[in-house]
Amino acid sequence: MALLQNAAVPFNRADSFISLEKHEGLDARARVGFGGGWKLRPRRRNLQLVLNSSTNANVETINGKKVNGVCVERDTNLMNHEFLLGRFAEERFVFRQAYVIRSYEIGPDQTATMETLMNLLQETALNHVAKSGVAGGGFGATREMSLRKLIWVVTRIHAQIDKYSSWGDVVEIDTWVDAAGKNGMRRDWIIRDYKSQKIITRATSTWAIMNRETRRLSKIPDEVRQELQPFYLDRAAIATENMDTQNIQKLSDQIANRIRTGLAPRWSDMDANQHVNNVKYIGWILESMPVNVLEDYKMKNITLEYRRECRQSNVLESLTSMKPITQQQQEEDAQHLECTSLLRMEGSHADIVRARSLWHSKKQISPSL
Question: How far apart are CA 310 and CA 264, in angstroms?
Fold first, then answer.
């Protein structure tokens, strides 16, 4: 987290198959299937896709072409298993991984959801730790952290989205880490469209260390700091002047436009650190958003302040306050929304997550708040 999803290529025809290279020293012939039967064929040195001659014409060929809209060029790194699990792009500092946006990762507007983006950021971060050689037995923890029963917890995330990818698009994510004060760590990400190499999302986050058993925050031990420092990179994904650094207003029943109650974590919402995965909170925040806002507006940036962990036994409330803002865009006034959100415990009203988000209008209409 603080320091595998493989890109599967879909095929429409059941009579399509893949012939893989055999290892040296094994049988020089590989078994390949044609429809309902089998035949022996000499092994090939390269991964190749063999298509039945009756393959539907709407499925394009291979080797530099596309299959169902997904690029599968033989020479590209996307066909390299090691690349799909991620690799270091700049010595040991920048870790890079590619993903295909799957059908179950898009929303009603057929683009990747905010939860999908956050999940991909988290997956890349965890694989960064695994590939770095310092991973311990915990969920993204280093070896020295695991020895001391320490885990990472996120305290703040800020993301800016220029474009949401669609089903079948390939994205490439870079991530790196740096120190944040004396006892914190900053992790940054950028997401590029793989085809154009244009940056479409930037994100930054801060993390603290918690004792897994006492659930209290801890200082970073010197031994842990020594593990992390070789990977620190003084680089910011988001320029300081573009950062959202202001504290987020605490909502009350009187201020909130909408309140959704009775949000109960499920077993599947829990992560390996025995608390609700930080990405799950985004879905609960959206539960108190009006449907017409979700339909007519697109989230352009979001800031989340994590103030308390949530366990499965907790029941939450989601509060949202919205206000319209006007920005000058290409000499025309464009209507946008700024939303302040709060997830809190039912009963005690203890804060779990505060959030602030900016939504840009898809259509030039005003929602009913």
Answer: 10
